[in-house]
Design a protein that fits this description.
Layout: H1 2-8, E1 31-35, E2 40-45, E3 51-55, E4 60-65, E5 71-75, E6 81-88, E7 95-98, E8 101-105, E9 108-117, E10 120-129, E11 135-141, H2 149-152, H3 155-158, E12 165-170, H4 185-203, E13 207-215, H5 218-228, E14 233-237, H6 244-258, H7 263-281, H8 288-298, H9 320-328, H10 344-349, E15 354-359, H11 368-379, E16 384-389, E17 397-401, E18 407-412, H12 416-426, E19 437-439
Parallel strand pairs: 11-12, 11-13, 13-14, 14-15, 15-16
Antiparallel strand pairs: 1-2, 1-8, 2-3, 3-4, 4-5, 5-6, 6-7, 7-8, 9-10, 10-12, 16-19, 17-18
Helix pairs in contact: 4-5, 6-7, 7-8
Length: about 475
């Protein structure tokens, strides 16, 4: 349960990050490579002795070492082979062969740094394309994961390979940075501002535009940061314009909808979740009796097993002492979490152009209400752009269902990375990015859906019985 909670609690996982678990002898293969036809492929650390490749168009897979020195790939995050073979040269040569297409590691200008935020030393890195010209720089802001961004964020290389500078840092209490891990949005916003200022200092005369990209929890942090210190742009990926408590309620509602439960049963589930949320919000000090009474009342009903939410599931099987112990130890950061922070006043006050990219099938950070609120800001004349990808979930990945009805990610939404890069460059995006539906600021030509047939959105009829999509080969 601890592992599962650490991944899912408050929408922890940024899917463009991978666990940094590759052993030292594999580290030399990590990097972005430009193939002979001009395309790029990024190779990042992954779990155990594997690596993960990504292309800027969204294809991805896991690389597994073979006895003959080559690496074979499996499709997305599935265990299914995708017939791709990769080989690397000696580390000092920096060469790669992908499905008989040769390539070479992209050289970057890299500057490691230590900077300070409110008395805490944070460790960061600026990665710039080689050269002397002015370029835009994006500061990558964490979600609520506790992994090292310096080790795991692939975007720190993927953007520079496309001519965009990137600043990445380990947030306080993670990786090699100092301080204590926190989910205090105000503190994290101050840290993001300190990172932005350090990125500006390091970029010097090469700095063009500068702004932020933040996923998941970063969607609460980035808007606070841009209102405190001016930047040119902000990107929120799979973030929320609702409170933390509302996030969990919306997630439970989707649990009930996707599992075909009635309106009456959904109301019971939401009451139960609301009682559990009170227990979590107060660190186990309040509301346990009411929560436990509802558990006992409903535990034999058919819908009970499907209550998950974004975080209430953590305490569903636990007794009072277990809850208090968990919050006192593994989840002590709960005491710093602003459960009732209302983001809309911050968003209304912003004068910074913002791009919000959401997935319609996001169960961890349900997007419907957030999309509605961002559209309302657009209608009020705010400089916001909203892109919603049908069929995409948290992390902006598409997925298939396994035999148990569980989601297995297959790739990133087509056009997602390119959309962000375009917005970083000039604060506007083009017409089409995969099958995203786009709402633009007043005065800009409204976006239209791409001519490519949209992916099917998971409906209540398909969550448990959706047919796995046929194997589809995505070339590097």
């Amino acid at each position: 349960m601890k592992t599962r909670a650490a991944i899912a609690f408050f929408g922890v996982l940024l899917s463009f990050s991978a666990l940094a678990g590759a052993d030292a002898k594999r580290d030399c293969h990590v990097g972005s490579y430009r193939l002979s036809d001009g395309r790029t492929v990024d190779v990042a650390p992954s779990d155990s002795n594997t690596l993960r490749w990504r292309t800027f168009t969204g294809e991805t897979g896991q690389l597994h070492p073979q006895a003959n020195g080559t690496w074979t790939s499996t499709y997305g995050w599935t265990d299914r082979p995708d017939a791709k073979t990769v080989s690397f040269s000696d580390c000092d040569k920096g060469e790669i062969v992908v499905a008989n297409e040769s390539g070479r590691r992209v050289a970057f200008d890299v500057r490691e740094t230590v900077f300070e935020s409110n008395g805490v030393k944070l460790v960061g890195r600026l990665i710039m394309p080689e050269g002397s010209g002015r370029i835009p720089v994006v500061v990558l802001v964490h979600g609520s994961e506790q992994d090292s961004a310096l080790d795991s964020y692939a975007l720190q290389r993927m953007f520079p390979a496309q001519g965009v500078g990137a600043f990445v840092y380990d947030k306080r209490g993670t990786g090699v940075s100092g301080g204590t891990y926190t989910q205090d949005f105000d503190v994290l916003a101050d840290d993001a501002i300190a990172a932005m200022k350090e990125a500006k200092r390091l970029a010097g005369a090469r700095l063009g535009r500068i702004g932020y990209q933040g996923g998941s929890e970063g969607g609460w942090v980035v808007p606070l940061a841009v209102n405190r210190a001016p930047v040119d742009f902000a990107i929120v990926s799979f973030g929320l314009a609702v409170t933390v408590l509302e996030e969990d309620q919306e997630s439970v509602a989707l649990d009930m909808y996707f599992h075909h439960h009635s309106t009456a049963d959904s109301a019971k589930a939401l009451d139960l979740a609301r009682a559990g949320e009170r227990v979590i919000e107060t660190g186990g000090k309040e509301g346990y009796e009411a929560f436990d009474a509802l558990r006992q009342k409903y535990k034999s009903e058919s819908w009970y097993k499907d209550v998950h939410g974004d975080f209430v599931f953590v305490i569903m099987p636990l007794e009072r002492k277990q809850i208090i112990d968990a919050i006192s130890h593994e989840f002590s950061f709960i005491h710093t979490t602003p459960f009732r922070y209302e983001p809309m006043p911050t968003l209304r006050a912003s004068t910074t152009p913002q791009l919000w990219v959401l997935g319609s099938d996001d169960l961890e950070a349900p997007s419907a209400e957030t999309a509605k609120r961002v559209k309302s800001l657009i209608a009020q004349g705010k400089s916001y752009t909203l892109a919603v990808y049908p069929g995409a979930e948290h992390g902006m990945t598409e997925y298939e269902l396994n035999a148990k009805g569980e989601r297995i990610s297959t790739r990133f939404a087509p056009g997602y990375f390119q959309m962000m890069a375009d917005f970083i460059r000039d604060g506007r995006i083009g017409e089409h990015y995969g099958n995203a539906t786009i709402a633009r600021p007043v005065g800009q030509e409204p976006g239209t859906r791409t001519g490519v047939a949209p992916l099917a959105v998971v409906s209540s009829e398909h969550l448990d019985a959706r047919t796995a999509r046929a194997d589809e080969e995505y070339p590097f």
